[in-house]
Amino acid sequence: MSTAGFNSQNGTGTGQTYTNGPSQNPVALQQPPGVGYGMNHQPAYNPMQTKVLGPPSPALYASGPYQPVPPGPQLGSYPPPPAQPLLTRPPIGVLPSHTPPQSASPGPGPRQAQATPPAQATPPPPAVTSTSYYTGPPAWQYAAPRGPAPNHVNPAAAAPPHMSHGSAQPPGPGAPPTSIHGYPQPGTAPPPMNPPPPHTYQPNRPAYGPPPTAPPAGPPGATGTPPPPKVDAQSWGAASSARPPTEPDTQEGDVECPGDVAGNGPQAPNSYNHVDNRMAGAAQPGPPGRHLGHYPSLPPGYQNTLAPPPSSLHPALQAATQPYIQGPQPYQQPGGPGPDQLSPSMAAMSLQSGTPEALRVVNLLQERNLLPPAPVPAPTPCLTQDLQKLNCSPEVFRCTLTSIPQTQSLLNKAKLPLGLLLHPFKDLSQLPVVTSSTIVRCRSCRTYINPFVSFLDQRRWKCNLCYRVNDVPEEFMYNPVSRSYGEPHKRPEVQNATIEFIAPSEYMLRPPQPAVYLFVLDVSHNAVETGYLSVFCQSLLDNINALPGDSRTKVGFITFDSTIHFYNLQEGLSQPQMLIVSDIEDIFLPTPDSLLVNLNECKELVQDLLKSLPNLFEKTMETQSALGSALQAAFKLLSPTGGRMSVFQTQLPNLGVGALQSREDPNQRASAKDVQHLSPATDFYKKLALDCSGQQVAVDLFLLSAQYCDLASLGCISRFSAGSVYYYPSYHHQHNPAQVERFQRDLKRYLTRKIGFEAVMRIRCTKGLSIHTFHGNFFVRSTDLLSLPNVNPDAGFAVQMSIEENLDDMQVVSFQAALLYTSSKGERRIRVHTMCLPVVSSLSDVFAGADVQAVTGLLACMAVDRSVTSSLSDARDAMTNAAIDSLSSYRQSALTIQQPGLLAPACLRLFPLYILALLKQKAFRTGTSTRLDERVFAMYQLKYQPLAFAMLMIHPALYRLDDLSDEGALNINERTIPQPRVLQLSVEKLSREGAFLMDAGLVMYLWIGRNCHQNFLSQVLGVSSYAAVPEKLCLLPELDTAESQRTRALVSWLRDQRPFFPSLHIIRDESQLKPHFMQNMIEDRTESALSYYEFLLHLQQQISK
Ligand SMILES: [Zn+2]
């Protein structure tokens, strides 16, 4: 047995990975409702009368922080408008007002940008708390006793102690007691909704829809204080069950069904855009549903909902009896009705009918061929069909253990981490959208009503998270899908585990923000050399009409090298005006009102700018990069509205605030015992990111560089502001066509994909379970509230959980993720996902429900944190021990018949292979030369990618391509997609006569064997011989042959499965990239790493100790 343990785990969550900064409470920082949000620039940064478009009188400009655009060689190609010359001299007369009051050194004298970087005028924080944001040592003590885990927290980080689910951590200073998705403390009154702005909400407006087909059925709802006969005494709501409802008592209940609106058939991810479009014309204020005024018929998402049953039975009876009318009901639990009624007999389902496949004993040392022929599917939770049919898709919501252990001690025995993996904003082909003036939620814990609640009768429902009994609001009695009355349990909210609400005004703290996009572009010499700027400008020109937004959409541009350049795009100008601020130590905005402009009104100017930008800096010799100042300027520009900042950087920032120095020693890449510098060198980027988060600004970083850029430091700007990081190592417009293509494709997706603004996500779980550590890009605002200034459909999240109270009397537990965001059309929306899982009491059942991919994905996140807070070798040991501990526990406690060998339950048979794959993954490997930035990027990806894509990075898929056939092929849109089987990652599986495709997520390799069949060479690659395969080939030629079509169909189908674009490299034995291909042969031995078989022997040895 190992002793070190993957000191991970489900302990008492000491650590939140990201702590709450002292003053970070975006809600608190927001302006109150009704306050204008678009125009109130801070006067401090408004030194100029921005309405003045003409050339300012020279006399007005003095030596301020401005510099006129030099007509010099590097910028001279930007023609000044004849009548409106670019800024000339800064004014003399009004000098004081040009200096931002905050300026620490409002030196009146002219300051030149080219001056040597002031010696840290903005001093870095005294003690660089390099690991401060990783404070939460994931409490990874397997088998740790419950109770506070050893505190590894870096004292400097001052992380607030972890709070469990029930003990609400006070939000940051100034936070309202109840924020959006308010989570009241037990015993407190239900949170008052944020009072709606008076002009947007008319609670008593009569309903448009058909009136109820029957009068309200009697008195139950009338009193508003249902007697909850069987409410769990311990449930939080018990004390407050008699409170009056907080929601306005409205009779309306419009349901918007976008699929129906748009026609039939599965709706594309933008299905709700149809709704948006319809909304766009409607008056902005007020719940949009009110303008619809009718109940649409069934959208595709509802097609399989049951027809309304004969309503002769009382609905409560129906609910109670339907699934089990035939069967025994041995589960009358002390909890009374509720989940128990819905829950299956786990005991009956799991083991009584013989050993399920998941528990089939596999001797790993003997069974070599463990990979299924097709990608590994997610396990199905052991629930009754009725429940499982309603359950959330595993693509959105996955749990490492699909059977939840009843107690923490049982979980500790299993030695597997408990956690969730989420892809909450995933593009969905079908998404029911509901518009309702009343969103029905538990009055105690604020859970949204969902398919796993139970109805005590027509008028009362019991929360599946806290067990409080709630009233059914009157308007919920009407089912818009079946157009009948008295069927609350048939409402779409109760029939769909994934659903979206258009939120009424109480979900807004301010009017929904417009879509605002600010692009911050590196235009230094290095940047121009890479050639990225023209690709970017062309891509934005091509997609400018596809940017998500509406008539309010705003855009702006900032470029920078050693100075910061702004662009006045005010409507009415004949050309864009460039404004240069050379005082990078004291950055402020010239003409704040004309830098972010309405896209529709100023589109021509924007297009002009995009066309001229690449030439503008063509001959620049400026090598310095004042990225930090550019980010500060961009933050100031976006602060009043919030929005998205897209930053393109090509080198290490080396001037002004946030300047960095190279920390990588290339000679140590392979030989160092442990990898240094995984944590940031400065907290400048994290602090700025938190400021951004507070103002609803997210920063996406595109790093295009051949040299070390210290991604560990720069990346913080995106991680804590809920942005994304894109990395294109060795990007060059001529030398690296594969990267260029990837960049182009990624940009197209990035510019046009859906986006949500000013978002928060709350994850709730059934009482007794507690969420602690979070993984992904966000800022944890309070215990379970993630602040996401932007949310995009490609972002994944993970959380770790522990079991705080025994789940003895529960058959099932539920998890609910609610994402509140502003759509690009300015609607407030809430997307809710609810997952239900069974609770089990035996260790065998826990193992049987293990989801090996989810376990691996979560362990990868934990190992990333561990690498930074402790060390890479520590993280590697912990991963190995995770495999040892769980298999050891299985052998000792779950296996009834002992036998020799290294034994695993079938559901975990891939666990050692995946762990070995992680050890060999770029993020964690040792002994192989790995660039620090590439390693850090791999770590980011592991934490940020949705599980399906992270798994490809960990364990690539290998296919043989030279013998593709149509056997078993998919047929999609009349295209035939071959489905070759997935091969083990071993050189054994290669053959010199073949051609093999390795899909590693972000990159694909097509390896051509030296003696590859002539047929494949000519019919697919269009070459006459092996020697004629070009050295750098990244495209499959479009040949009119069956072989070519099959091959291209497979490759493009694989690419279509993911939101990013993997580049394809066609390689021969002599290719430079061959080592990259070979490094992914995980099962083989390398100089520095064990083969799979050796690794298994190592595990066995440790287990039998
Ligand atoms: Zn509740």
UniProtKB/TrEMBL annotation:
<keyword id="KW-0256">Endoplasmic reticulum</keyword>
<feature type="domain" description="Sec23/Sec24 beta-sandwich">
    <location>
        <begin position="756"/>
        <end position="840"/>
    </location>
</feature>
<feature type="domain" description="Sec23/Sec24 trunk">
    <location>
        <begin position="512"/>
        <end position="751"/>
    </location>
</feature>
<keyword id="KW-0813">Transport</keyword>
<dbReference type="InterPro" id="IPR006900">
    <property type="entry name" value="Sec23/24_helical_dom"/>
</dbReference>
<dbReference type="InterPro" id="IPR006896">
    <property type="entry name" value="Sec23/24_trunk_dom"/>
</dbReference>
<dbReference type="InterPro" id="IPR007123">
    <property type="entry name" value="Gelsolin-like_dom"/>
</dbReference>
<dbReference type="GO" id="GO:0008270">
    <property type="term" value="F:zinc ion binding"/>
</dbReference>
<keyword id="KW-0653">Protein transport</keyword>
<dbReference type="InterPro" id="IPR029006">
    <property type="entry name" value="ADF-H/Gelsolin-like_dom_sf"/>
</dbReference>
<dbReference type="InterPro" id="IPR036180">
    <property type="entry name" value="Gelsolin-like_dom_sf"/>
</dbReference>
<feature type="compositionally biased region" description="Low complexity">
    <location>
        <begin position="110"/>
        <end position="119"/>
    </location>
</feature>
<keyword id="KW-0931">ER-Golgi transport</keyword>
<feature type="compositionally biased region" description="Low complexity">
    <location>
        <begin position="9"/>
        <end position="21"/>
    </location>
</feature>
<keyword id="KW-0968">Cytoplasmic vesicle</keyword>
<dbReference type="GO" id="GO:0000149">
    <property type="term" value="F:SNARE binding"/>
</dbReference>
<dbReference type="GO" id="GO:0070971">
    <property type="term" value="C:endoplasmic reticulum exit site"/>
</dbReference>
<protein>
    <submittedName>
        <fullName>SEC24 homolog A, COPII coat complex component</fullName>
    </submittedName>
</protein>
<dbReference type="InterPro" id="IPR006895">
    <property type="entry name" value="Znf_Sec23_Sec24"/>
</dbReference>
<keyword id="KW-0472">Membrane</keyword>
<dbReference type="GO" id="GO:0006886">
    <property type="term" value="P:intracellular protein transport"/>
</dbReference>
<feature type="domain" description="Gelsolin-like">
    <location>
        <begin position="977"/>
        <end position="1049"/>
    </location>
</feature>
<dbReference type="Pfam" id="PF04811">
    <property type="entry name" value="Sec23_trunk"/>
</dbReference>
<dbReference type="GO" id="GO:0005829">
    <property type="term" value="C:cytosol"/>
</dbReference>
<dbReference type="InterPro" id="IPR036465">
    <property type="entry name" value="vWFA_dom_sf"/>
</dbReference>
<feature type="compositionally biased region" description="Pro residues">
    <location>
        <begin position="187"/>
        <end position="200"/>
    </location>
</feature>
<feature type="compositionally biased region" description="Pro residues">
    <location>
        <begin position="208"/>
        <end position="230"/>
    </location>
</feature>
<dbReference type="InterPro" id="IPR012990">
    <property type="entry name" value="Beta-sandwich_Sec23_24"/>
</dbReference>
<feature type="region of interest" description="Disordered">
    <location>
        <begin position="1"/>
        <end position="315"/>
    </location>
</feature>
<feature type="compositionally biased region" description="Low complexity">
    <location>
        <begin position="149"/>
        <end position="162"/>
    </location>
</feature>
<dbReference type="InterPro" id="IPR036174">
    <property type="entry name" value="Znf_Sec23_Sec24_sf"/>
</dbReference>
<keyword id="KW-0862">Zinc</keyword>
<dbReference type="InterPro" id="IPR041742">
    <property type="entry name" value="Sec24-like_trunk_dom"/>
</dbReference>
<keyword id="KW-0479">Metal-binding</keyword>
<feature type="domain" description="Sec23/Sec24 helical">
    <location>
        <begin position="851"/>
        <end position="948"/>
    </location>
</feature>
<dbReference type="Pfam" id="PF08033">
    <property type="entry name" value="Sec23_BS"/>
</dbReference>
<dbReference type="Pfam" id="PF00626">
    <property type="entry name" value="Gelsolin"/>
</dbReference>
<dbReference type="GO" id="GO:0030127">
    <property type="term" value="C:COPII vesicle coat"/>
</dbReference>
<dbReference type="GO" id="GO:0090110">
    <property type="term" value="P:COPII-coated vesicle cargo loading"/>
</dbReference>
<dbReference type="InterPro" id="IPR036175">
    <property type="entry name" value="Sec23/24_helical_dom_sf"/>
</dbReference>
<feature type="compositionally biased region" description="Pro residues">
    <location>
        <begin position="67"/>
        <end position="84"/>
    </location>
</feature>
<dbReference type="InterPro" id="IPR050550">
    <property type="entry name" value="SEC23_SEC24_subfamily"/>
</dbReference>
